[in-house]
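Quiz preparation item.
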């Protein structure tokens, strides 16, 4: 039964009760009974006092809106003694449930961790408020300046939640309750809205300018009418922030200013002084001098507590205010830049810094220091390498005469990850940075340059890099020095992974995050978790990796550069599973596909795209990717980073019938890695030579090269590539001795190892190769009967079809005709009792996820 019954308004529940006399189980649902009139409430009381046999009743109501508190139906009910009564209070949703609602409605790719956290905080977990906000975000146009996600839609951040209007339902509910209050109680509600945090009875009364007795009476009324709530012992306020916002937005300007002034007076006597909250009230009440002093104190406290994110948020909002003039602007700008690199990326931070470096009132040295951190943000946080390099070079010029700062800019220009400028330029900047830092005699700058020196040398496979890494001051008491040591160690995890030094990478991975957290560097801690995902992918730790990588991409959406490693992992996993559409999506994401991206990541992603094009028999696209990727590596000159690209680029070039070019590529690769300490490059070079031997028809030599490459990959360890080498060796052995069992055991080993990893597509391909040879297995007499069970071949086809491959792509993988594949798919659908290929993917979800 609804609160608005379909019978005429003069009808009563007693008329309905007559229909219950027939007996049998019955369920009565009465919603929103706090709105029931006297006649309906009386009828419900009568029904519950004399319930018919088999009656079950559910009544829903808002306790705060009952006409008589505590009496659901307006008066006591004489419930029968044998009736069971249960009272369930529905509280707010927990954070996990709010996350599920948002992700289901908006898509995981759009929901950053910061967005989900703020959504929960602002809504308080109130289900209707969450639903209304989610609906608003679902239909809203992209935020100005929003960046596309991996699937091309704008990403939602905490800023979207902060700038979204209070939902209409919630606004009308809160404003309606507030409007019904008497004048003094309404003033107390206004005070709570201005404070926007829990407060004591005395604090609320002071802000509302009420006497002790009047304040107590007003608070009691506000609690009774459910405008305010007791949120802790002696602590009162609005239930959720958006309720406060709904009331605050209706306050007239002069009233707001007066209330903020009294709020500032209240907070000034709190101990410890909440400087950030105090600053907000001082600004709103027109006390700008006091506001700036409080901002500075709050920022210093946050930095000392290594809470750089809070310092950044406070300072960037302050500097965005045009009323902040020199010299306050200069001092606060430097505070912001010194926290910016340690915190996570903020578009607003970049915008503020861009304005500051063009501010003519700032000295050249100050602009140079700001420009230095702007350049670091553009490159390391946003992945804008070209803009990063321009700003850093300018900062070196502006910082002439300030050696310690100029050395930091030079050291940043020494890092070879970015494509702008050849390696020789990076090494020139490195030499200048080392010399300038030594002359400065500044320990912090020397630590910064030492971290970049170790990073640069390790990145190119220079053995001296490991010695430089050991010299970093890991135990220094100065957090600024420790921060640079942490950065060097975390960078070394990434460099070691690209080199194939996986044991060392694991050891550093145990040290880097701890150092980063000790130094307060949130950014480094976040980045090294991406390196850990990359390391797990290449070393075959695939269990649960896809879900962890997707969660990481969602978390770091506001720092796109950080997502590169996770996207590469997702691309490789999708390729191995046979989900080629997703593989193409991840491997073509802007973070890893744009020419301005970090060279090792873009080279590895190009290798993945080449493999995908080869699998789809798109030889033209594969050859084009190979040529572009190789040209980029040649321009940079760091050939150890060719390890992920070279085998696929050489194969694509061979299949494009450019064998001579392929030989030149391998020779160039070999010369580039000579004298470098890079185990992964050594394995990849052996693999490239095997491909050349196979192309020239010298199959025994090719098989032996593939076996050597397999041994190299196994020693790293890199099990996926090792299994692919077993497949290649077996293929060449078969080609060398057709009609024999040569290479069969290698193919069988490859199939088994790939199956352990969960590489569905690769397993199907290798098994098809095994079946192509008559001596592979003893053929049974007669055809086995599978009845309504899937045959092994039908199972393979079903898995590949479920992953998204077309009949033509499956046919190419399994060496079948498209018509045969079509028949296998049809039989699989019939036997499984499902209607579409998409349903095959759902069936496959019951298996272990990569």
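Solution:
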């Amino acid at each position: 039964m609804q609160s608005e019954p379909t019978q005429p308004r003069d009808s009563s529940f007693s008329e309905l009760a007559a229909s219950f006399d027939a007996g049998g189980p019955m369920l009565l649902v009465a919603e929103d009974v706090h709105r029931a009139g006297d006649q309906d409430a009386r009828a419900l009381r009568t029904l519950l006092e004399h319930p018919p046999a088999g009656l079950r009743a559910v009544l829903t109501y808002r306790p705060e809106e009952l006409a008589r508190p505590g009496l659901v139906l307006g008066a006591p009910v004489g419930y029968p003694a044998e009736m069971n009564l249960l009272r369930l209070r529905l509280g707010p949703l927990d954070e996990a449930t709010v996350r599920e609602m948002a992700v289901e409605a908006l898509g995981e790719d759009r929901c950053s961790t910061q967005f989900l956290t703020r959504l929960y905080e602002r809504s308080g977990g109130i289900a209707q408020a969450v639903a209304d906000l989610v609906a608003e975000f679902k239909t809203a146009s992209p935020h100005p300046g929003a960046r596309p996600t991996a699937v091309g839609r704008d990403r939602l951040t905490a800023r979207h939640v902060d700038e979204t209007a209070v939902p209409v339902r919630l606004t009308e509910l809160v404003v309606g309750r507030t409007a019904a209050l008497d004048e003094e109680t309404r003033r107390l509600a206004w005070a709570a809205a201005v404070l926007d945090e829990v407060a004591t009875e005395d604090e609320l009364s002071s802000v509302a300018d009420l006497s002790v007795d009047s304040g107590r009476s007003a608070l009691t009324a506000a609690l009774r009418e459910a405008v305010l709530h007791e949120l802790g012992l002696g602590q009162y306020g609005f239930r959720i922030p958006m309720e406060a916002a709904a009331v605050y937005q209706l306050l007239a300007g002069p009233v707001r200013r007066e209330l903020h002034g009294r709020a500032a007076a209240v907070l000034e006597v709190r101990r410890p002084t909440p400087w950030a909250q105090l600053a907000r009230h001082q600004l709103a009440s027109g006390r700008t001098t006091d506001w700036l002093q409080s901002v500075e104190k709050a920022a210093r406290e946050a930095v000392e507590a290594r809470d750089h994110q809070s310092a950044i948020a406070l300072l960037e909002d302050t500097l965005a205010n045009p009323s902040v003039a020199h010299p306050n602007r200069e001092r606060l700008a430097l505070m912001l830049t010194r926290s910016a690199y340690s915190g996570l990326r903020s578009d607003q931070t970049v915008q503020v810094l861009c304005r500051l470096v063009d501010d003519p009132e700032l000295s050249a040295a100050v602009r140079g220091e700001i420009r230095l951190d702007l350049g670091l943000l553009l490159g390391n946080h946003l992945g804008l390498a070209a803009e990063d390099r321009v700003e850093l070079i300018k900062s070196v010029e502006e910082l002439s005469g300030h050696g310690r700062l100029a050395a930091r800019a030079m050291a940043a220009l020494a890092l070879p990850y970015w494509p702008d400028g050849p390696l020789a330029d990076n090494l020139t900047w490195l030499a200048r940075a080392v010399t300038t830092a030594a002359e400065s005699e500044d320990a912090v700058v020397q630590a910064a340059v030492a971290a970049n020196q170790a990073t640069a040398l390790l990145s190119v496979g220079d053995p001296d890099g490991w010695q430089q890494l050991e010299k970093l001051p890991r135990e220094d008491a100065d957090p600024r020095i420790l921060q640079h040591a942490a950065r060097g160690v975390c960078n070394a995890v990434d460099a070691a992974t690209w080199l194939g030094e996986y044991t060392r990478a694991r050891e550093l991975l145990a040290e880097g995050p701890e150092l980063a957290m000790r130094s307060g560097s949130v950014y480094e801690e976040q980045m090294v978790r991406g390196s850990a995902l990359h390391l797990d992918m290449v070393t075959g730790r695939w269990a649960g990796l896809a879900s962890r990588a997707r969660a990481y991409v969602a978390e770091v959406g506001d720092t796109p550069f950080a997502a590169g490693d996770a996207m590469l992992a997702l691309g490789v996993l999708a390729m191995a599973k046979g989900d080629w559409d997703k593989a193409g999506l991840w491997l073509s994401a802007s973070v890893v596909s744009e020419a301005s991206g970090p060279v090792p990541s873009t080279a590895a992603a190009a290798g993945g795209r080449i493999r995908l094009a080869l699998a789809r028999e798109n030889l033209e696209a594969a050859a084009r990717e190979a040529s572009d990727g190789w040209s980029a590596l040649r321009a940079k000159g760091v050939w150890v980073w060719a390890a992920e690209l070279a085998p696929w680029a050489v194969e694509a070039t061979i299949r494009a019938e450019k064998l001579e070019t392929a030989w030149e590529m391998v020779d160039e690769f070999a010369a580039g890695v000579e004298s470098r300490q890079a185990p992964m490059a050594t394995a990849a070079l052996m693999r490239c030579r095997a491909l050349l031997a196979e192309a020239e028809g010298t199959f025994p030599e090719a098989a032996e090269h593939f076996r050597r490459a397999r041994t190299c990959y196994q020693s790293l360890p890199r099990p996926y590539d090792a299994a692919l080498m077993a497949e290649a060796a077996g293929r060449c052995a078969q080609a060398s001795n057709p009609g024999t069992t040569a290479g069969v055991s290698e193919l069988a080993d490859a199939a088994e190892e790939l199956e352990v990893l969960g590489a569905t597509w690769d397993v199907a391909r290798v098994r098809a190769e095994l079946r192509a040879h008559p001596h592979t297995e003893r053929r049974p007499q007669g055809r086995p009967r599978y009845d309504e069970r899937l045959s092994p071949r039908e199972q393979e086809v079903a898995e590949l079809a479920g992953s998204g491959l077309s009949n033509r792509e499956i046919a190419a993988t399994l060496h079948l005709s498209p018509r045969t594949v079509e028949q296998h798919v049809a039989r699989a659908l019939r036997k499984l009792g499902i209607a579409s290929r998409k349903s095959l993917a759902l069936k496959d979800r019951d298996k272990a996820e990569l």
